[in-house]
Design a protein that fits this description.
The complex is a heterodimer of chains A (251) and B (642).
Chain A: E1 2-11, E2 14-24, E3 29-33, H1 40-48, E4 55-60, E5 63-64, H2 70-75, E6 78-81, H3 93-107, H4 120-132, H5 148-161, E7 166-170, H6 178-195, E8 198-202, H7 206-212, E9 215-220, E10 223-228, H8 230-234, H9 237-244, H10 246-250
Parallel strand pairs in A: 3-8, 3-9, 6-7, 7-8
Antiparallel strand pairs in A: 1-2, 1-4, 4-5, 9-10
Chain B: H1 2-31, H2 38-53, H3 60-84, H4 94-116, H5 127-130, E1 132-135, E2 138-141, H6 142-164, H7 166-176, H8 178-183, H9 188-209, H10 220-235, H11 240-260, H12 268-279, H13 313-332, H14 335-360, H15 369-385, H16 391-416, H17 419-438, E3 449-450, E4 456-459, E5 462-465, H18 469-491, H19 494-504, H20 506-510, H21 516-542, E6 544-545, H22 552-565, H23 572-586, H24 593-608, H25 612-619, H26 634-637
Antiparallel strand pairs in B: 1-2, 3-6, 4-5
The chains are: A alpha/beta (251), B mainly alpha (642).
Bound molecules: adenosine-5'-triphosphate and magnesium ion.
Chain lengths: 251, 642
């Protein structure tokens, strides 16, 4: 499904990604892990088109997409959530979701009707997405008043309203309480089954990583260290060295 | 020889501008506030010094003494302004802080007119400076040489203080990272205050010393305002060396302009500036941290609602009553009032179109009046000299011309710039248009197009005569009302929801599949079309259009209207324009008073109520229905498409 080869990215003189290649199959959940500053978010940005890579190629369903901008990639089926949730703070939960559903219809080429207000089906779909992300009791709250965990869930709902074929989540549970975290994993698992999603995620919390992913890539300082299943990663010597003996490795 | 002379003159101009520009760049470098009003403080300094030395300063010492006194007074004023205004601007978005300093400019200019009157005064140079030195065939006024020397001296002093002294070290540390500096125990508020005082001191000093260079008039601020802006932008905001080089460049460009385009004075610098903004928006010298546009601008002032409100009885009643009042005006109002209301209607629609960019799409432009002027001149010229093209065709053409020019400008500008650079770029384009009109005799030059006839509209079977004042008023009011309603509907549709999404979070919008650049361009084109159409409607009403229609002062009118009314509300600009027009009408007989009051009101709004009047209203609950409860219950939103 996603095939990327030899991605290089630098900010000015600082090389942040030094040749990353991955390939993710349809329906797979693939996790990127690595210490702070490893370049996970940057890699996400490059994959989703938020920032261009310096070199390397990205194939999505066989199409070369590395020169497309972010919105064009969204049209092809990308969905993205952010390390710090990006929602529309001046709108209510329901309005956020309505806007997302409308966006999907537009992306699919549906013209809007003559009415100004969103149609009944749109509002109903938005409300049902709120239910699926456990936000149905907060439909009319301004998003700026939501708690951190609620924002993350709302962002997930917004993204899923686009019905993406690939969902890319940058630290979906960052800063959540353990119970929120558990709930979020459950929601993701349920939605993944319902929507047959391919998922790429980064995460620091190992419970989340192990709870969700089929395969894992470990990154350090912009370079891939190891790729494999959970079992393979656990026993990988290079990985153990990074996580356990960071100080004598880095210098 | 002429070249030498042009360059020498250019340098004199450049160095006098540097004296003001250095203050602007100092303040920006520290406080991240682009002080638009600095030119006006320079003017106050000049008036103060003039009051002290009179029209014929008897000696160099006398002139310098007056300038020094003015400089000290300005430093004290700087302290006051810092405490009263600048300190409070740290928490508001970039566009709001720009507008607040613009409001300061209005206050200053109003004050000058109120205190010193609107007459011209000229001050002669003291005898010791009055002569000229000649060398070969080239001769240079001593006074000009003194100005150049002064500019270089000020630059050297600033350079040494900033880059070679312990004080400079602290200043640079704060400029680089105020938060850390505070942490390590630097008293940042004190340093800020000192920097502002120094900048104001310079403005006062320059105002005094440059007295013999120009006449003292309430327009004095203008050339300094625009040119010193260019200098700091070209040099790189916050960078003294950049400002110095920029000032020299400005002088050279002015010299070239004088040599090669004598019929279009002052236009080349705008062209260079635009080239600069597109090529290197950060200026010659990039200043770390000078990019302010990613500050949390987006939410200041609130986000307008983009979902249709319920049509309650009160709302409908308000609409009907307002329409009835406006449409019945020709029956009972006197001519003066009718005129003001007609202008206010046009200004209100202009402001609505500006707020489509500002409040909805999140783009602050400073040259909106240019579109208005395009339409006004097009329709005005064709009605007067165009030989019978039908009026409605002219109106359509004005909208098209506005859309086309906005498409071209937007295509380039939105690709390359944002934030302050976009603001200055649009401002420059507007000024270029104004100057081109100014020097085009076919368009009436300075005097404008006068004697524009009002049209008769032929509609095939019958014709509508709009030549009378009352008939044209009805036509104008109905057209403005229709445009406003159509625009309102647009903002309440899916398109409006795209706009508010982009404004609140462009990245999120992009990841909803919205091509942000393209939709910003759409908004730009629509806004330009409406502004130009409004200009077209306005021309036959006023029956005269002057180059001022394109000036930056006119461009700021929609901003003021919008901010006063509330940028977070579709109808905010209309409320603001009604209030400003009423203010203008009530204070029309006192020179400067309306500027003074408007400016003061605006500062208050930005500092105390960034949501504008409607924002205040919503806060106190009278209009509360708009937001939280518009946030509709599910059935309310389900007005499905027919
Ligand atoms: N816009 C930028 N300009 C310059 N350097 C950047 C920029 N964004 C990130 N970096 C640098 O790139 C490196 C990788 O950052 P990135 O955010 O990708 O790491 P990460 O793996 O997501 O870390 P975390 O786990 O903390 O989220 C860091 O050293 C960071 O300082
Ligand atoms: Mg990250």
């Amino acid at each position: 499904m996603i095939e990327c080869r030899n991605i290089h990215k630098s900010y000015g003189a600082i090389a942040v990604l030094k040749g990353i290649s991955i390939s993710v199959a349809q329906g797979e959940t693939f996790a990127l892990i690595g210490p702070n500053g490893a370049g996970k978010t940057t890699f996400f940005k490059v994959l989703t088109g938020e920032t261009p890579a310096n070199s390397g190629s990205i194939l999505f369903k066989g199409e070369e997409i590395s020169r497309l901008n972010a919105s064009a990639r969204v049209h092809r089926g990308f969905g993205r959530t952010f390390q710090v949730a990006r929602i529309l703070p001046g709108n209510t939960v329901l309005e956020n979701l309505v806007i997302a559903v409308e966006a999907r219809l537009r992306n699919q080429g549906h013209r809007s009707g003559f009415g100004l207000a969103p149609g009944r089906e749109i509002v109903e779909e938005a409300a049902s997405m709120a239910r699926r992300t456990d936000l149905d009791d907060k439909l009319h709250q301004l998003a700026s008043f939501l708690s951190h965990g609620d924002r993350k869930r709302l962002e997930l709902g917004i993204t899923l309203s686009l019905r993406p074929s690939v969902l890319m989540m940058d630290e979906p549970t960052a800063g959540m309480s353990p119970s929120d975290r558990r709930q979020t994993i459950d929601i993701i698992l349920k939605l993944r089954a319902e929507e047959k999603l391919t998922i790429l995620l980064t995460e620091h919390d190992m419970d989340v990583v192990f709870g969700l992913s089929d395969r894992i890539m470990v990154m350090n300082q912009g370079e891939p260290v190891a790729v494999g299943t959970i079992g393979e990663i656990r026993t990988n010597a290079a990985v153990r060295e990074i996580y356990l003996g960071q100080d004598d490795h880095d210098a | 020889m002429q070249i030498g002379f042009a360059i020498f003159n250019g340098l004199t101009v450049g160095m006098s501008i540097f004296l003001v520009a250095s203050g602007i760049t100092l303040i920006f470098g520290m406080l991240r506030i682009l002080n638009i009003s600095h030119g006006s403080f320079f003017m106050i300094g000049a008036y103060l010094a003039y009051t002290i030395v009179g029209t014929e300063p008897d000696s160099v010492i006398g002139l310098a003494g007056g300038a020094l006194a003015a400089a000290l007074a300005m430093a004290v004023l700087g302290l006051v302004i810092n405490v009263a205004v600048f300190r409070r601007l740290r928490d508001v978005g970039e566009a709001y802080s720009l507008i607040a300093t613009f409001a300061l400019l209005m206050v200053c200019n109003g004050l000058v007119k109120a205190v010193w009157g609107v007459n011209y005064h000229s001050v002669s140079a003291p005898e010791a400076l009055a002569g000229a030195i000649s060398y070969g065939g080239f001769f240079a006024p001593i006074y000009s040489i003194a100005i150049i020397g002064l500019g270089v001296l000020v630059f050297l002093v600033l350079e040494i203080v900033i880059h070679r002294s312990p004080v400079g070290k602290i200043v640079r540390a704060i400029a680089h990272d105020p938060w850390m500096s505070n942490l390590v125990g630097i008293n940042t508020p004190l340093v800020y205050a000192l920097v502002v005082m120094a900048a104001f001191f310079l403005a006062g000093l320059a105002g005094g010393l440059l007295l013999p260079n120009q006449s003292v008039t309430p327009q004095l601020f203008e050339s300094y305002l625009l040119q010193s802006f260019m200098v700091v932008i070209i040099g790189g905001l916050g960078n003294i060396r950049g400002a110095f080089l920029g000032a020299i460049m400005l002088g050279m460009i002015e010299g070239l302009n004088f040599l090669f385009l004598p019929r279009l004075p002052g236009i080349l610098i705008y062209v260079v500036l635009i080239g600069f903004l597109l090529w290197r928006p950060q200026g010659l010298f990039w200043q770390p941290g000078a990019q302010t546009s990613d500050q949390h601008e987006v939410m200041t002032g609130g986000v307008p609602s983009s979902f249709p409100p319920r049509a309650t009885k009160t709302r409908i009643a308000i609409g009907v009553v307002l329409a009835a009042v406006v449409l019945s005006l020709p029956e009972w109002a006197n001519q003066g009032l009718l005129f003001i209301v007609g202008f206010a209607l046009a200004e209100a629609v202009l402001a609505l179109s500006w707020n489509l960019l500002f409040g909805y799409a999140g783009l602050a432009t400073f040259g909106h009046a240019a579109f208005f002027a395009l339409g006004a001149y097009l329709v005005g010229f064709m009605l007067r000299d165009g030989g019978g093209v039908p009026f409605l065709v002219l109106l359509a053409a004005s909208a098209l011309v506005g859309a086309a020019s906005a498409l071209i400008v937007g295509f380039v500008a939105l690709r390359r710039t944002s934030g302050i650079a976009l603001g200055i770029l649009t401002l420059s384009l507007g000024e270029i248009l104004r100057r081109v009109i100014n020097y085009t005799p076919e368009l009436g030059s300075d005097d404008g197009l006068s004697g524009i006839p009002r049209p008769v509209v032929e509609l095939g079977l019958f014709s509508v005569d709009l030549t009378s004042e009352r008939a044209y008023f009805w036509f104008l009011a109905a057209s403005c009302g229709l445009i406003a309603l159509a625009l309102w509907a647009y903002t309440l549709s899916r398109n409006g929801r795209i706009l508010v999404t982009m404004r609140q979070d462009p990245t999120r919008a992009e990841f909803l599949g919205i091509d942000v650049r393209r939709h910003r361009l759409y908004a730009f084109v629509l806004s330009g079309a409406i502004a130009s159409l409004t200009g077209g409607l306005y021309a036959p009403w006023a029956q005269i259009v002057t180059p001022d229609a394109a000036s930056y002062l006119h461009s700021t009118q929609p901003m003021l209207n919008t901010l006063l009314g509330g940028s977070g509300f579709f109808w905010g600009p209309v409320v603001g324009s009604a209030i400003f027009s009423a203010l203008g009408y009530a204070t029309r007989t006192f020179a400067g008073l309306s500027e003074l009051i408007s400016g003061a009101v605006l500062i208050l709004v930005v500092l105390a109520a960034p949501g504008g009047i409607l924002g205040l209203g919503a806060k106190f609950g009278r209009l509360r229905r708009r937001r939280a409860p518009t946030a509709p219950d599910v059935p309310a939103m389900q007005r499905s498409a027919p």
